[in-house]
Amino acid sequence: MRQEAPQERHREAPHLRGRLELLGDELLRAGRGPLTAVVALACSSFLAAGCSGPTPSGSASEEAQGVRAQGLLEKVAPDAPEFVESGLERVADGVHARSALAGGRTYKVSVACVGTGTVELTIGDKAPPQAVPCDGVRSSRPVQDPPDVLPVDITAAAGATGMVAWQITAVPS
User: Fold this and answer.
1) Helix extents (H) in 73-139
2) Which three-class secondary structure state does DSSP give residue 167?
3) pTM passes above 0.90
């Protein structure tokens, strides 16, 4: 049940009659018309239609994709002798790593992409790019006789989205 505002307040501010007033901590509404009721009804039905359930935000979705992509890579501790380098990036940002490697060893480059579309993996300066789908499956490539600094580039194909995790490890001899 609505209570009417005391008339004394309107005598102090007669120019505010029929408008929204803020007096102290009270919010008083004077003179609601049919248009106000229509607007309130329209707003409430618009808000109710948008409340069908929680939708993950872009960052929450990216975080989940990143956790999944990293989980697909081999579990190698950063202080393990075979660990070289690893990372996690948005597919749209890509990966452009330059890793220092010791000669005479064989290495493995692993990539896991979670999202949609494909990414293109280029290992070294002369190798052609290889397509890696963003389907949540790890893909690994051996690297024999690497240069002192190995370029690893991962770029998004048209329309690709998601997160891509990558890892370089030395293969035990």
Assistant:
1) none
2) strand
3) no
Are 166 and 97 in contact by the 8 Å Cβ rule? The answer is: yes
- Asked whether residue 126 falls in the same domain as residue 78, the answer is yes
Say if CB 155 and CB 66 are below 8 A apart.
no
Structural domain harbouring 32: 7-49
Provide the number of structural domains found in the chain: 2
2, part of any domain: no
Where helices occur in 33-164 by DSSP H, the ranges are: 34-49, 58-72
Question: What digits encode the pLDDT tens for the residues 143-165?
Answer: 999 999 999 999 999 999 999 99
Do 70 and 147 sit in the same domain of this protein? yes
- CB-CB contact of 171 with 100 (8 Å): no
